[in-house]
UniProtKB/TrEMBL annotation, chain A:
Name recorded for this polypeptide: Cytochrome oxidase subunit III
Protein source organism: Algoriphagus formosus
Family from the record: Belongs to the cytochrome c oxidase subunit 3 family.
Biological process per Gene Ontology, one example term: aerobic electron transport chain
GO cellular component, one term: plasma membrane
PROSITE patterns associated with the record: COX3
Membrane topology type: Multi-pass membrane protein
One function term, GO molecular function aspect: cytochrome-c oxidase activity
Entry's transmembrane regions: 22-44, 59-79, 91-109, 129-153, 174-191
Subcellular location: Cell membrane; Membrane
A Pfam family the protein falls into: COX3
UniProtKB/TrEMBL annotation, chain B:
Transmembrane segments: 41-63, 91-116, 137-156, 187-213, 225-253, 286-306, 318-339, 351-372, 384-409, 421-448, 460-488, 508-530
Keyword Metal-binding in annotation: yes
Membrane topology reported for the UniProt record: Multi-pass membrane protein
GO molecular function annotation: cytochrome-c oxidase activity; heme binding
InterPro entries recorded: Cyt_c_oxase-like_su1_dom, Cyt_c_oxase-like_su1_sf, Cyt_C_Oxase_1, Cyt_c_Oxase_su1_BS
Localization in the cell: Membrane
Family under the similarity heading: Belongs to the heme-copper respiratory oxidase family.
SUPFAM superfamilies, per the entry: Cytochrome c oxidase subunit I-like
Keyword presence, Transport: yes
Record GO biological process: aerobic respiration; electron transport coupled proton transport; respiratory electron transport chain
Cytochrome oxidase subunit I profile domain residues: 24-593
Official protein name in the record: Cytochrome c oxidase subunit I
Species for this entry: Algoriphagus formosus
CC terms in the record's Gene Ontology section: membrane
């Protein structure tokens, strides 16, 4: 028995989750922590008084709708990819990317609306916080759009299908996460206004 | 008897051979091999430790010998020596700031965690490499960019950042405040942004690797305590560094864009600044939400290394393996809910202060459990005093003596007297600075044979240890006394004050001790670089250790194990097991191969183990048949 002892490993390693997918989830944890810190800072600062009150831009309702719709399209694309329906996949992803860009433009108009209300980035922290929330979220969303575009291109090269879902799954989770993050920020702002 | 060195795999798989065609650049510079990246972190960390130590010697000269003519330092410091031959006052502030920043982040975070997490995680869990070699490489190069920027900031005309390593606003937010708040502070923030990115990339990789890439049989309850420590360190970093990023981001907006997150109602030269509505305490909350966990980011890897070194060199299983894990978990969780004990005197609600005091004092429990376990592991062990062992015991000593003063400081009433005095300096230099530094050095002595295939000289190691160990106590022990007397930290000149001018002798003593201790580190440096090329050739398992890294070739290539990755059958602390032939049984030895030393419950597991082995060898044969 002892002489026959060898390294008995299967060629496949016991991987419980795709490492890159897992790393993406950890990255999302760091993003959560950034926004948790910022929103906590908002609450702490608000409690100290000297806080400018103003109305939130109405366009946030529109952009929230857009971001949810975009997620729905992406999910439809994801299901289509699983079923190897590549034309639906491309339509769904293109729509998601398009709506993502519409969302970013909408967020820009929220800044325009804020300036119209005399709420500037430089001034009372109450306003500055809103610019930081939307700005930092937009930066992350741009990274998401880039990610989606990369996956979209590879879908045109027939690299996304039911047997190759890793990047698609990662892009989908990241996009849903960013949408959810915006909904959280919007809810947070609504409740603390 | 079957041992770990059964690398006799005749049907060798050559699927890793193609990676040996590295040229100089891919092997030594842009390497994706976790071992090379670990060494890169180590060398950069040593470089920073020298700079950081040198800075401390400079300000110790000022503190110990305030009247001394420092004209001879002009070739090095240039304009920072005033015309009367004194150290420039603002430069003194920059020195303490940079010493803190460099030591906390660049040496004890990147140099310690970066080195050993990278080097040991794949080797000890049985993985070919990190989950993402590319991200790992990126992590080092972000750290490198951060290092270059921080290093440049030492040489600019207005000097590096000077507001203390915590960079509290408004001092750090207003360029007019002190020279160091100008370009130096900007570079500090840019460097720290890169540093945070580097830490996060590294941390994500460590966590992913530990969770997903463990070899067969390596369950969480069979992980060496080093890996547990690195894993929890990475978790802490992942949760706390983003908060520092948020704090720094708002500080950047305040500094460069005119916002008022931290600034309110400030007058400079009679002129009111436009900023209103900000809160400097907000920054303190955000900073210490990282700052306190950072203490454990620095300390936990050192504690993990100590567990491993003490168990190996006591030839005994670590006492209370599960208790060690639970106490590390406890420390991890508690580290996030005690941050405000750094802010007892910031005008915080005293009731809140007592809550934070309560939570802070709870940390004494897991810490005491760890100390108890170290001592009971040492107790009646067959101690082998290698340099690594001595440094580990030194760590335990510092952890006790520095930890005790933490109980004083965690008390919100006593902290009113002790806050920002040399008592605090003594406390954290012992418990966090020196303890972690000793863990780092112990790790280098212990894993040097694995890193470079040669042994470090033990006699030089002993000299290094005793000079450093005694030196550290000589430096930091007297500081407790002057701290209790109210001697404040970061003061450039203290001889002019009635309450502090009687401490000249004590300060002189501390400075001399600091210089000797710093000089002793050059013994280590010589030993390190000399042994790298001329040291005695190492055997494959020089410390007769049980963990997986000693089953690799003496200098493992990229991929770590030729052929299959070994399977793990037992926990990593089977030292001096009753009945066993040798006083250690490597993790790769199946229970079925050691019937003489199995405990009753292990004997029962043998049967299932045999079945698994049978299944696996069938699968292996099938796989090989498929490949050929």
């Amino acid at each position: 028995m002892e002489k026959e002892l060898k390294y008995i490993d299967l060629v496949e390693q016991p991987i419980s989750m795709h490492p890159k997918k897992f790393a993406l989830w950890l990255f999302m944890v760091t993003v959560v922590m950034i926004f948790a810190a910022l929103t906590s800072a908002y609450i702490v600062r608000q409690a100290e008084g000297n806080w400018l009150e103003y109305d939130l831009p109405q366009v946030f309702w529109f952009t929230s709708g857009v971001v949810v719709l975009s997620s729905l399209f992406l999910h439809w694309a994801y299901i289509s990819a699983k079923k190897d329906n590549l034309s639906q996949l491309r339509i769904g992803m293109s729509m998601a990317v398009l709506l993502g860009i519409v969302f970013l433009v909408g967020q820009w108009y929220s800044w325009v609306a804020l300036v119209d209300r005399q709420v500037f980035f430089v001034g009372n922290p109450s306003g500055s916080f809103l610019y930081v929330f939307t700005g930092l979220h937009a930066v992350h969303l741009i990274s998401g759009v880039i990610f989606l575009i990369i996956v979209l291109i590879s879908s045109f090269r027939y690299k996304v299908h039911s047997q190759a879902m890793n990047t698609m799954e990662m892009a989908t989770s990241y996009w849903h996460f960013l949408g959810g993050l915006w909904i959280y920020l919007f809810m947070f702002l609504l409740l603390n206004h | 008897m079957a041992t770990a060195s059964v690398a006799t795999h005749d049907t060798a798989h050559d699927h890793h051979d193609h990676e040996h065609h590295d040229n100089f650049v891919t092997k030594y510079i842009f390497s994706t091999d976790h071992k090379m990246i670990g060494k890169q972190f180590l060398i950069t960390g040593i470089f920073w430790a020298l700079i950081g130590g040198l800075l401390s010697v400079l300000f110790r000269l000022q503190l110990g010998f305030p009247e001394m003519n420092l004209e001879w330092l002009r070739p090095l410091l240039g304009g920072w020596i005033t015309e009367t031959g004194q150290l420039d006052q603002t430069f003194y502030l920059a020195l303490v700031t940079m010493h803190g920043t460099i030591m906390v982040f660049f040496v004890l975070t990147a140099g310690l965690s970066g080195t050993f997490s990278n080097f040991l995680i794949p080797l000890q869990i049985g993985a070919r490499d990190m989950a993402s070699g590319f991200m790992n490489m990126l992590s080092y190069w972000f750290f490198f960019v951060s290092s270059v920027i921080m290093f440049i900031s030492l040489f600019i005309k207005t000097g590096p950042a000077g507001g203390g390593w915590v960079v509290y606003p408004p001092l750090s937010a207003l360029e007019q405040a002190i020279p160091g708040s100008g370009l130096g502070m900007t570079l500090w923030l840019v460097a720290m942004t890169f540093f945070i990115a580097s830490s996060l990339l590294g941390g994500i990789n460590y966590i992913t690797t530990v969770i997903n890439l463990r070899t067969k049989g390596m369950s969480f309850s069979r992980l060496p305590l080093t890996i547990w420590a690195f894993f929890l360190t990475a978790v802490i970093g992942l949760l706390s560094f983003p908060v520092l990023f948020a704090a720094a981001l708002l500080l950047v907006f305040d500094r460069s864009f005119g916002t008022s997150f931290y600034l309110s109602d400030i007058y400079i030269g009679g002129e009111a600044l436009p900023n209103t509505g900000g809160s400097p305490v907000l920054y303190q909350h955000l900073f210490w939400f990282l700052g306190h966990p950072e203490v454990y980011i620095v300390l936990l890897p050192a504690l993990g290394i100590t567990s491993e070194v003490i168990a190996t060199n006591s030839r005994k299983p670590i006492f209370g393996y599960k208790a060690m894990i639970i106490s590390m978990l406890g420390i991890t969780i508690l580290s996030f809910i005690v941050w405000a004990h750094h802010m007892f005197v910031s005008g915080m609600n005293p009731f809140l202060g007592s809550i934070f005091m309560f939570l802070t004092l709870i940390i004494a429990i897991p810490s005491a459990v760890k100390v108890f376990n170290y001592l009971t592991t040492l107790w009646r062990g067959n101690l082998i005093f290698t340099p690594a062992m001595l440094f580990s015991i030194g760590l335990v000593s510092f952890f006790i003596s520095g930890g005790l003063t933490g109980i004083f400081l965690g008390n919100s009433a006593i902290d009113i007297q002790l806050h920002d005095t040399y008592f605090v300096v003594a406390h954290f230099h012992l418990v966090m600075g020196s303890a972690s530094f000793f863990g780092l050095v112990a790790g280098v002595y212990h894993w040097f044979p694995k890193m470079f295939g040669r042994m470090m000289d033990a006699r030089l190691g002993y000299v290094h240890f005793w000079l450093t160990f005694v030196g550290v106590y000589m430096v930091f022990f007297p500081m407790h006394y002057i701290g209790i007397a109210g001697f404040p930290r970061r003061y450039y000149s203290w001889t002019g004050f009635e309450f502090s001018n009687m401490y000249t002798d004590l300060n002189m003593f501390v400075s001399v001790a600091a210089i000797i201790t710093f000089a002793a580190q050059f013994i280590f440096l010589f030993n390190f670089f000399y042994s790298m090329y001329r040291g005695r050739k190492a055997s494959s398992n020089p410390w007769r250790s049980t963990t997986l890294e000693w089953t690799t070739p003496i200098v493992p290539g990229h991929g770590n194990w030729p052929g299959e990755i070994p399977t793990v059958y037992r926990w990593p602390y089977d030292y001096s097991k009753p009945g066993a032939e040798e006083d250690f049984i490597p993790q790769t030895v199946p229970l079925s191969a050691t019937p003489e030393s199995n405990l009753p419950h292990e004997q029962e597991q043998v049967k299932t183990e045999m079945e698994i082995i049978k299944d696996e060898s069938e699968a292996l044969v099938a796989n090989e048949a498929k490949e050929s």
